[in-house]
Design brief:
- The protein is mainly alpha-helical.
- Strand 3, helix 7 and strand 4 form a beta-alpha-beta unit.
- It is elongated, with a radius of gyration of 42 Å.
- It starts with 5 loop residues before the first helix and ends with a helix.
Length: 963
C-alpha cells in the first residue's frame, strides 16, 4: 500500500482485539469516496486478521448483481464451505427463498420495502447464523463485505439478522461503502447505526503531508520525514488529484517508470496510467455522476448546476449531488473538472454522438446565458449545428475576436461554419472575405480557391470594392500583381500593365480615397515596382504619413515608413519613424501584419541590431505560435538581420525555422527571402554543396519582379562567384542592377548591387572598373547605410595604394564596429593584419590577428583568421613568434598603457583621458611617453591606426592575447 492509514487501522485492530478477548461481536463501517482506498484497507486488514488466528470470509457487492437474490450472502457461504463448515442446508434454504423473491424486489432500490417475514425467511436466517457460528472457534470470525452500496436487498436483510445477534459471539462484521449522490438503503443504515458496538471509519482525501512522507520511501530514503522538495511535489500531486489515493498512485507510477528510464518528472504529467485511473473512478460512480462529468468536460469552464442540468435534462438538485460526489473523488474542483488531463480522459471516453449533442445544447444554453461569442462559437463548431438565426452573427463576432487575438486557426473554423449558416448574400460575402484572410494566415495554399472567388466578387463595379481591396496583400504574396493593381485602380480605368505596357496615371485619385485604399496602392507599387509607378513617385503625397503622429491610418503609416526606407527622402528619418511606429503599435491586437513594414524599414535602413531586438519581442508574443505566416516572415527578417550582423549561425537557424514552419510552396514570391539568406550563409561558410541544394528549390518566376527577387539574385550571384563561375555571377548582379535602376530604388540597404558587381570585376582583374563601381556605391545620394559603406571601403582598399589602404581599412573597421557587423569587422581586421605584415610591422600585426579572431567568435568567420595565420607561417611568421616569446618584450604595452593609447588614438586630450580613467594628468603623460617609445612614434598623431580597432572596454583580453 502506498500510504498507510495509521489511525484507521489502529481503530480496526482494536475492535478485532476486543472481539477476540471479550468474546463480543462488533460492526465496523468504512466509508469514503470512490478511489479513496477502501478496498485496500479491507484487504490489508484481512491479511492482518488472518495472521492473528481469525477466520475471514469475504464478499463484494456489484452493480451487475444487485438484482441477484442472496448474491453477497452466497459469497460468504461459499467461503464458509471452503473453511470446513457444512453449508448444505443453508444453501438449500437460500435457493428456495430466492425462488419466491421477485427479481425486481431483490435490487437495492427495493431493499427497504422487502418483507422480512415469510415461511422461508426465519429458517434461512437461523441456518445461516448457525453455519457461521461453526467457524468461530478457536479464534474470532470476521465477515468482510466490500462495496455494500451495491449489495442485493436479500443479503442486506441477512446481514442485519447477524448484526442483531453479536452481543455474545466473537464475530466482527467489516463493511465498506462509497459515497453516492443518493443515500443507499436508508432504513438499513438507520438500523445498522443503532447497534451499540459500531465503529465508523471515514477515509478523507490525502493531505500533502501524508503524500510527502511517502515520497522519500519511493526514492529509497527514510520514510516519515518530508523535505522541502518532497512537500512541494506532494502539493502539486494533491492539487492535480484532489488527494484521491487512486489518482495519486497512478501519477507516481508514471513518474516511477520515467525515473527508471533516466528521465525526471518535476511536474505531474498525466498519461495512460492516469487516464485509466480517471476512467476507473468514473465508471465506479453512478450513471448520473458520469453524465455530469461528461457535461463538464464538454463545457470546459465553471458551470452552475442549473447550466449543467439544462444540458442533461436533470434537476439542479440532482446535479449538485453528483458534483459533490465527483468532488469527493478528486475529479471535480467545485464546479469544473479539476485538471485538463482529467477533462481529456473524460472527453475521449464520451461517444462522438453524445459529445455532439452536448455541444449543441451547450451552445444554446450559453447563448441564452449571455456567454462570450467565442465560447458559444466553439460549441457551435464542435456540434456543426447552425439551426437558428443568431448563429451567423455569433460566429462572425467570434471570428473577429480570434483574429485580433492572433488565433486565425480558430477563425477559420468559425467562418467556415458561419458561411453556410443561412445568412443573407451580403453577410456571406463578408464572411468569405474574412475567411480568406484567416486561412492565409495559417496556410496561404489553403486560401487559393477562396481568393479567386473573392477577386471575382468585384463584378462590374466601377469603384474599388472592399472585398478585392482586402485581397491585395494575398495577391501580392502570390505575385499576381496585375490583379492586385486592378483591384485598387481608381474607377477601374487606366489599369496598370506589366512591363512593356503603359503605366497608369494615378493623378489625384489617391488623395480622394480612404487610407486603406491609399496604403494598398502604395504597397502594390513598392512590392512590385513595375506597377502603379506614379503612386510611388508621388512621394509628397505619402512620405509625410510616415512621421505623422495621429492623422493617418496605421496601415498607411506603416507602408509609408517602408516607402521612406526604400525611397529615402530629405527630412524623413525612416529608421526613427519605424522605431516610433513599433513602440506605438507592437502591443495592438490584430495589427501583427502592420509590424512587418517597419521591421523591413529598419533592416533596409541599416539597423539590423534593432531588427533583432524587435523581432525577438514580437516572436515572444503568445499569438506567434498560432500564426505560421506572420511568424515565418518575422523569422525570415530576423535571419537576414543576423546575417548582416555577421552571426551566420543565428541567421541560418532563423531562416531554417521560417521554412520549417511554412512549406516552400506556401511562401509564394516571398520565398526568396529565407532562401537567399540560407544560400548566403552556406556560401560564406564554404558549404557550397548545401548552397546548391537550396538553389535547387523551385522559385516562382514572378519573384523576379519584386525586390525580394533582387535579394535572391545577389545571394545566387555570390555563390556563383565563390564557385568560380564569374560570368554567371556577373549576369545575376547586372540583372539585379538593371532591376534596381529601372525601379529607381537606390536604397543600398536593400541590395548593394554595385558592391557585388565590383567583386566580380576584381576577380576578373578589372580593378579600375571595380574601383569605379565602389565609388559610385559610396556616392549614392540617399540611404547609404554604415554596413554598405564599410564593405565598399574594405573592397576599395584592395584597389588603393599601400599608403592609402590602411586608412580605408581603419575607416571600414569603425563602420563595422558601429553597425555591429562582426563578419565584416573580422575581414577588415584580417586585411589590416596583412597590410601591416607586408609593410614589415609584424609585431603590431599580431594584435590585429587576435582582434580579428575575437570578432570572428560566433560568426563563422574564423576561416579568414586561419588564412591570416597560415599566411604568417608562410612568410616566416612562425620564427618571429618564437623570437617574440623568448626575446625582448619592451614593445608590448601594459594594460594601463593600452587603455591610454586607445583613447589618445581616438582623439581624446590628456585631461579627457584623465577624467575617463580616473587617473591624474601626470600619469597619462607618463603612460603616453612609454607608449611612444615602445611604438617608436614621436607624438599623438603618429599613433598607429590599429589602436582604433581595440575595444576600449576589454583591453585586458586583447593584451593577454598580444602577450
Amino acid at each position: 500500500m502506498l500510504i498507510e492509514r495509521v489511525n484507521e487501522f489502529a481503530r480496526l485492530r482494536r475492535d478485532l482485539h476486543e472481539c477476540a478477548h471479550q468474546r463480543k461481536g462488533h460492526v465496523a463501517l468504512v466509508t469514503g469516496p470512490v478511489g479513496s482506498g477502501k478496498t485496500q484497507v479491507l484487504e490489508t486488514f484481512h491479511r492482518g486478521a488472518v495472521a492473528t488466528g481469525a477466520r475471514v470470509l469475504t464478499a463484494a457487492g456489484s452493480r451487475a448483481e444487485q438484482g441477484l437474490p442472496f448474491g453477497v450472502l452466497g459469497q460468504l457461504l461459499h467461503g464458509a464451505r471452503l473453511a470446513g463448515s457444512d453449508t448444505t442446508r443453508a444453501e438449500k434454504l437460500m435457493r428456495e427463498a430466492a425462488d419466491v423473491v421477485p427479481a425486481a424486489e431483490a435490487g437495492w432500490e427495493a431493499a427497504d420495502e422487502l418483507p422480512a417475514e415469510g415461511a422461508l425467511w426465519a429458517p434461512l436466517s437461523r441456518e445461516v447464523f448457525a453455519t457461521l457460528l461453526e467457524l468461530v472457534d478457536p479464534g474470532p470470525l470476521v465477515l468482510v463485505v466490500d462495496d455494500l452500496h451495491h449489495a442485493d436487498a436479500t443479503s442486506l436483510h441477512s446481514l442485519l439478522y447477524v448484526t442483531r445477534r453479536l452481543q455474545h459471539v466473537p464475530v466482527m462484521v467489516l463493511l465498506s461503502e462509497a459515497l453516492t449522490s443518493r443515500p443507499a438503503n436508508p432504513l438499513f443504515h438507520a438500523e445498522l447505526r443503532s447497534r451499540p458496538r459500531l465503529t465508523q471509519v471515514a477515509l478523507p482525501p490525502l493531505t500533502a503531508d501524508l503524500v510527502a512522507r511517502a515520497l522519500p520511501a519511493r526514492a529509497g530514503g527514510p520514510q516519515g520525514a518530508a523535505g522541502g522538495e518532497a512537500l512541494e511535489e506532494a502539493r502539486r500531486l494533491v492539487g492535480t488529484t484532489g488527494g484521491s489515493p487512486l489518482l495519486v498512485q497512478a501519477l507516481l507510477a508514471e513518474e516511477g517508470r520515467e525515473g527508471e528510464g533516466g528521465g525526471s518528472a518535476p511536474e505531474p504529467r498525466a498519461g495512460d496510467a492516469f487516464g485509466q485511473a480517471v476512467l476507473h473512478s468514473l465508471y465506479r460512480h453512478e450513471p448520473e455522476a458520469r453524465k455530469v462529468a461528461q457535461a463538464l468536460a464538454v463545457l470546459d469552464r465553471s458551470a452552475s448546476p442549473e447550466l449543467v442540468g439544462q444540458l442533461l435534462g436533470m434537476p439542479p438538485g440532482s446535479v449538485a449531488s453528483a458534483l459533490r460526489v465527483l468532488h469527493s473523488s478528486g475529479l471535480v474542483d467545485t464546479d469544473r473538472l479539476r485538471h485538463p488531463r482529467i477533462l481529456q480522459s473524460v472527453l475521449a471516453d464520451t461517444p462522438a454522438e453524445v459529445r455532439q449533442r452536448l455541444h449543441e445544447r451547450a451552445a444554446r444554453a450559453l447563448h441564452e446565458h449571455g456567454a462570450a461569442s467565442s465560447v458559444v462559437a466553439g460549441h457551435l463548431v464542435a456540434s456543426g449545428w447552425t439551426g437558428e438565426e443568431w448563429v451567423a452573427p455569433v460566429l462572425r463576432d467570434a471570428a473577429e475576436q480570434s483574429l485580433a487575438a492572433g488565433r486565425p486557426d480558430l477563425s477559420v473554423a468559425y467562418l467556415r461554419l458561419g458561411r453556410g449558416a443561412g445568412a443573407d448574400e451580403g453577410r456571406r460575402g463578408a464572411l468569405a472575405t474574412m475567411l480568406v484572410g484567416a486561412r492565409w494566415q495559417v496556410n496561404p495554399l489553403a486560401a487559393d480557391r477562396d481568393l479567386d472567388m473573392l477577386v471575382q466578387s468585384a463584378g462590374a463595379d466601377e469603384d474599388p470594392a472592399p472585398a478585392p481591396v482586402s485581397a491585395v496583400p494575398y495577391l501580392l504574396w502570390q505575385g499576381r500583381a496585375e490583379e492586385a493593381a486592378d483591384a485598387v485602380a481608381p474607377g477601374r480605368e487606366g489599369r496598370t500593365a506589366a512591363p512593356g505596357r503603359a503605366a497608369p496615371k494615378a493623378g489625384g485619385a489617391a488623395g480622394a480615397v480612404d487610407g486603406r485604399l491609399q496604403a494598398m496602392r502604395l504597397l502594390v507599387s513598392l512590392s512590385h515596382p513595375d506597377f502603379l509607378v506614379p503612386v510611388r513617385e508621388s512621394r509628397d503625397r505619402w512620405s509625410r504619413a510616415a512621421t505623422a503622429p495621429h492623422s493617418v491610418s496605421p496601415l498607411l503609416q506603416a507602408v509609408s515608413v517602408l516607402g521612406s526606407a526604400l525611397l529615402p527622402t530629405e527630412g524623413v528619418d525612416s529608421a526613427a519613424a519605424a522605431e516610433q511606429f513599433l513602440q506605438r503599435h507592437h502591443l495592438d491586437r490584430g495589427n501583427r501584419g502592420l509590424l512587418v513594414a517597419p521591421l523591413l524599414a529598419l533592416l533596409y535602413g541599416g539597423r539590423a541590431g534593432r531588427v533583432v531586438v524587435w523581432s525577438d519581442t514580437l516572436l515572444g508574443r503568445p499569438e506567434a505560435r498560432h500564426t505560421p505566416v506572420w511568424r515565418g516572415v518575422v523569422q525570415s527578417i530576423r535571419a537576414e538581420a543576423a546575417l548582416r550582423l555577421g552571426d551566420l549561425a543565428e541567421a541560418e537557424q532563423g531562416a531554417r525555422a521560417a521554412l520549417e514552419g511554412l512549406p516552400v510552396p506556401a511562401w509564394g514570391v516571398v520565398v526568396g527571402g529565407p532562401l537567399g539568406t540560407l544560400i548566403s550563409c552556406a556560401t560564406e561558410t564554404g558549404r557550397h554543396a548545401e548552397a546548391e541544394r537550396w538553389l535547387a528549390e523551385p522559385v516562382p518566376e514572378r519573384m523576379f519582379r519584386t525586390p525580394i527577387g533582387a535579394h535572391y539574385l545577389v545571394a545566387r550571384g555570390s555563390h556563383h562567384l565563390a564557385m568560380g563561375r564569374r560570368q554567371a555571377a556577373s549576369s545575376d548582379f547586372q540583372r539585379c542592377g538593371a532591376m534596381m535602376r529601372g525601379w529607381n530604388l537606390e536604397a543600398s540597404g536593400l541590395v548593394p548591387w554595385r558592391l557585388e558587381l565590383a567583386r566580380v570585376q576584381m576577380e576578373l582583374g578589372e580593378r579600375t572598373l571595380a574601383a569605379q563601381l565602389l565609388r559610385d556605391q559610396l556616392h549614392v545620394s540617399q540611404g547609404l547605410d554604415e554596413r554598405t559603406r564599410g564593405r565598399a571601403l574594405r573592397l576599395l582598399a584592395s584597389t588603393a595604394a599601400p599608403d592609402h589602404r590602411r586608412k580605408l581599412l581603419s575607416k571600414a573597421v569603425e563602420l563595422f564596429q558601429s553597425c555591429g557587423d562582426r563578419q565584416g569587422l573580422a575581414r577588415a581586421l584580417a586585411d589590416i593584419d596583412q597590410v601591416m605584415r607586408q609593410s614589415g610591422e609584424t609585431g603590431h600585426a599580431r594584435r590585429f590577428l587576435f582582434r580579428a579572431d575575437e570578432a570572428a567568435q560566433g560568426a563563422d568567420t574564423a576561416s579568414w583568421v586561419r588564412q591570416a595565420q597560415e599566411w604568417q607561417v608562410g612568410q616566416g611568421g612562425q620564427g618571429e613568434a618564437q623570437a617574440g616569446e623568448g626575446g625582448d618584450r619592451d614593445d608590448v604595452l601594459s594594460e594601463a598603457e593600452l587603455r591610454v593609447a586607445v583613447l589618445a588614438a581616438r582623439g581624446r586630450t590628456n585631461r579627457q583621458i584623465s577624467d575617463a580613467l580616473f587617473i591624474t594628468v601626470s600619469t597619462v603623460e607618463q603612460h603616453l611617453t612609454r607608449t611612444y617609445r615602445k611604438l617608436n612614434v614621436r607624438q599623438r598623431t603618429d599613433l598607429p591606426s590599429w589602436l582604433l580597432a581595440v575595444d576600449g572596454d576589454q583591453p585586458r583580453k586583447v593584451q593577454e592575447k598580444v602577450s
